[in-house]
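User: Can you predict the 3D structure for this chain?
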Amino acid sequence: MIELFFDIKPEMLAADEEVMKLCKPYFDKIDEVSAYNQVKVLKAFIDNGISSSHLVGTTGYGYDDKGRDGLDRLFASIVGAEDALCRHNFMSGTHTLAVALFGVLRTGDKMVCVTGTPYDTLHGVIGIDGSHYGNLTDYGVIYDQCDLLEDSNPDIRAIKQKCADAKVCYIQRSRGYSNRKALSLETIKEISDAAKSVNKDIIVMVDNCYGEYTHKEEPIRYGADLIMGSLIKNPGGGIAPTGGYIAGRHDLVEMCGHRLTAPGTGREIGCTNDMMRDMYLGVYFAPMVTANALKTSIYTSALYEKMGFKTEPSYKEDRNDIITIIECKNPENIIEICRAIQSASPIDAFAAPEPGDMPGYDSQVIMAAGAFTMGSSIELSCDAPIREPYLLYMQGGTSFEASRAAVLLSAQKVFDIQNKK
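Assistant: Here is the predicted structure, written as structure tokens:
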């Protein structure tokens, strides 16, 4: 059907047909997880008595905002946590992570990132980029890290050594701009068990971005005390226009609430204006939308592997986030793939992405994102820092069929480049 609307070469149509057959058993597994999570979300809506009155926002201080407080309870139920802040007030995933870190850490405390150097935009939050804008280092928080082993597994010996006197064991589930595997829930439990075996009071925090709904459970069930993420990724279902969440132990969530607003007022304030309907709707549709993104990820891996590219993960491997890495070999492939994805996007299809400087990144970055919500990574997008080894990060896809067409067009672009040489 794709060829009825786009000019696809016979060779690529044949590749698409073969890839779809390869992907079917893996798609079936995704459908099973999606069905489980969708019913779980439905039950949480019913158990929490969500009504039409929850969909109406407030103004001003937002005292006794029924929709805001109901969404917190609902999200906690969905992820299996004691408590949660699920708010539009979080401006990005980075802001959400910063609120959580500043919420629980104090002067003299030590945090250990046990998955290596964290994602680029956290460097300024922690202070490991040398900046002095009121980051954790400025406030006297001590930072240390344990690098992952070459096979992407945690260095358990180093974790036990460095977490013995730490306040926070920090885990980044997804890969960020690195060529390593996303962490499985079992690996998160292994890290948590190791840290708590030497320090029973340590707080295990998981940056859960891109990992929500990829499995039937979330890291709370696997030893995490706090999980954090962005609502313009998996858990917002492509509908929530902004926001983030922090979920976990009640006492820790309360501390984060006082950092989100102001000490003494905490989670009790914050109006919601007309945001609540989209927030609830996004949370409701998130399992189905994440399933489409996972199918897009598997399809991307299979198609590009067939064309001779190395991908991470392979289409045959279990998915622990929605991201596929394509080793593009050179900047030209990165740019052409991004432009092809942009040209097959519903918004700004006419745009031609170019590499450029971006706040929080030490290399020029190119991003293709013809999305309804700016920066939404659950909608089909791809981006890459223009630096060796030239890795492109593809994620999202609220509609698998539309995303399939875009990925196929991007592969055809690369196919054309290869045949010219």
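The chain has a mean pLDDT of 95. The CA atoms of residues 301 and 315 lie 5 Å apart.
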